[in-house]
Amino acid sequence: xxxxxxxxxxxxxxxxxxxxxxxxxxxxxxxxxxxxxxxxxxxxxxxxxxxxxxxxxxxxxxxxxxxxxxxxxxxxxxxxxxxxxxxxxxxxxxxxxxxxxxxxxxxxxxxxxxxxxxxxxxxxxxxxxxxxxxxxxxxxxxxxxxxxxxxxxxxxxxxxxxxxxxxxxxxxxxxxxxxxxxxxxxx
Length: 187
What we know:
The structure is a single chain. By secondary structure, the protein is mainly alpha-helical. The protein folds into two domains: 8-68, no CATH class; 74-179, AhpD-like, CATH 1.20.1290. Helix content is 66%, strand content 0%. α3 (53-68) packs across α8.
């Protein structure tokens, strides 16, 4: 890792305010994977974001906005997140969201196929829409009109917007993790 996680005792006042908000949000929305060291230092994307609160706070605010009251079904969200993480080969992202995907009812086969960069054959209709939407966006260019209209029909305007912002957020998360070489926690 290129930036060491910051122990709570070493936080500046700006970092402390962000840390406290992150810790509360992580406890509420991100369970089932290691996100903190024994000394309380945050891991994952939260560690680099704490080093730069002027960038980390707005990034965290987007995480909170998308995590606190999602309108999309949880498995649909995880498919889009995993497609994004797989595209960027973001180890921590994939580690965390495979575990969350399991909690949300995605089969091991689906998860392994998405992580391998492939489209599972047994996706539900909604999961298929999320997969195609996220895949098109991370591969660049304008989202195809048919993909957009299909998402609107399935999830409504708000849900399609949520899906777009979710892919964008997890592209940011993946790039943050890759920039700072954030590792998967040791078992």
